[in-house]
Amino acid sequence: MTTIKSYLPLNTATTEYEEVDERVTRRTIEQNFQDVASDLHNVKTQNDKDGSLAMRKYQFLFLGASNG
């Protein structure tokens, strides 16, 4: 069973500017970008268990099997 990854939601905007809210929003966006980059890196390097197993199955079924 695979788990679905969720990313942090952004805060809702207030009518007045608040520095603390801006910092939290910026940090949330930065963290989401880092999480996505990490997920992409795991896919590229096959560090993710489910992704790695799926890639191995694909390679075995389509690339490793001979047609002769």
Provide a short characterization of the protein structure.
This protein has helices at 19-45, 49-63.
Describe the structure.
This protein is mainly alpha-helical. It is 62% helix and 0% strand. It is built from two helices and no strands. The protein has helices at 19-45, 49-63. It is rod-shaped and about 60 Å long. The relative contact order is 0.10. The model has no long low-confidence stretch (mean pLDDT 77).
Secondary structure tally: strands: 0
Q: Structural class of the helices, strands and pairings?
A: mainly alpha
- The percentage of residues in β strands lies in under 5%
Rg from C-alpha positions? 20 Å
Report the average pLDDT across residues.
77
List the helices and strands and how they pair.
Blueprint: H1 19-45, H2 49-63
Q: Which key features would you list for this structure?
A:
single chain, mainly alpha, 2 helices, 68 residues
